[in-house]
Prior knowledge:
The chain is mostly helical and 288 residues long. 72% of the residues lie in helices and 0% in strands.
Amino acid sequence: MTFTGVSQWFTRLLCKNDSKKYPCFSMILSLSSSSSSLSSAIELNSTMKKLIGSRQYKQVLGLFDRQFPMCTDVTFTLALKTCGKLEDHKCGVRIHQQLSLKSLQDPFLQTLLIHFYMHCHDVDQAQKIFSTIKEKTVYMYGAMFKGYISNNTPEKFIDLFEKISVEIDEVIITILFNACAKLCDSQAIKIGKDTLNRLPISFLQNQKLVDCLCRLDMFDEAQTVIDDYEKSNSPSLVMYTAMLSGARNYHHVSLSQKLYDRMRSLFLNQHSDLISAAILLSNTYASQ
């Protein structure tokens, strides 16, 4: 039986049976189909996407290496994303080094490289790439900010945020408040308050904002957000729960009791949520 015949036999077997029962057969089949000559970069990228979808990451990288001559920027993107999922720093560096000078100027690939190195905890390399980019986008800043938070360096986030040269979006604002909450020093609180005064009206109705403010001990500001939100929306259990949780963390007993009483009047029929709120309240009293 030829190699093609073996492949067809495996295909018929997997069609008749659940492929999950035969993981080794499934892997062999994918390898054999991937190894065959692909006629175009579009077909190559499509095959890689399918392998990523089935979490066959090593096969993706093997296919990338075998079909390298026909690789496009899309192919490099898929390969780098796969390295990130595997946290394969060495392979990602190799792929980075194979990028052409033109590709290295592509904003999407630049952002992806920052994501990759941050994901692999190589903060220095991510910073190096970011520093060489002349026209920085909000997505590049977002990649840096997320990377600083995931690598537990919120102070670097704050430093970069003060130098930001593009208009910030809601994602970055949320990350900012999370970073401020982690630091919770005088500088972080000042930045949080200054940013709050510059926020667009649309974001002032973002439920996540209440949680961020409460973690900064900015309960008056959080209450103002809730009041403004309720002018055009029904009361939000998420907002009140976030504020009650924050009050627990800062041991604000009277505020916790006030919030719980308010929740009981607003969400009378949501019994399980009120039980959780009662537990938060009792924990606040117990912390005294």
